[in-house]
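Entry 12.
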Amino acid sequence: MSRSDPREWGRPDGLLLDMDGTLVDTEPLWFEAAQEAVARFGGHLPDAAAEALVGLHTPSIIDTLRTRFGAAARPAALHAAVLDALAERLRRARAMPGAADLVAAAMAHGVRCAVVSNSSADVVRDTLAPHPWARDLTLRVSADDVRAAKPAPEIYLLALERLGLDAARCVAIEDSPTGAIAAVAAGVRCIGVAQSAAQATALHDVTPYVLGSLAAVGHWLDLLDGDGAQRPAPPTPRDGDPT
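Predicted 3D structure (tokens):
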């Protein structure tokens, strides 16, 4: 697989998928939950602070809420308050455009997939549960599985180990510099998906490959056509067919 243009890579053997903000639009919901929890403990989390939390794993979020935004609570109590506020919101979290098509196309073409998330295992489960397409994503690596979450590479290295694949034959999809740093440090080619110019600029500081949608990612990886439709999968051999 060339390191130049993703359009020259062809289909990878493995696809390593970030969840929050990449597969499911949870980032605004996390922020709403954090605002509610911080206010409950006497602090204030302004709207302008949203970018400060993107890509962080939960302990780092809790520490930031306490030290920077005045939440006067023990970490465990603040964590519980955030999760309480988040639970109902996750039930209405929408899939990111193109997520279902990209996962279906990867499965149809035999590309092995793993969810690689800085969220806890429980939050990964609850976030993906409402989405039928996510049932195929049975390999899930969360922050609970590693000592150091993203931006450390450990979570990606563990995902590669569990997939049984070489980093050079895989591609990571991330929406935050934190996640992209982890993927690149693990030796995985990373495509950033950006919803804004500021997000694209931040991702470009880590990876040269930044696109505007999951449909574009699927097209570049030869899984989806230019209209975002699944490319035909290879036929299933029948008994007696040459192999």
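Annotation: The CA atoms of residues 78 and 171 lie 35 Å apart. The domain at 6-25+94-220 is CATH 3.40.50.1000 (Rossmann fold).
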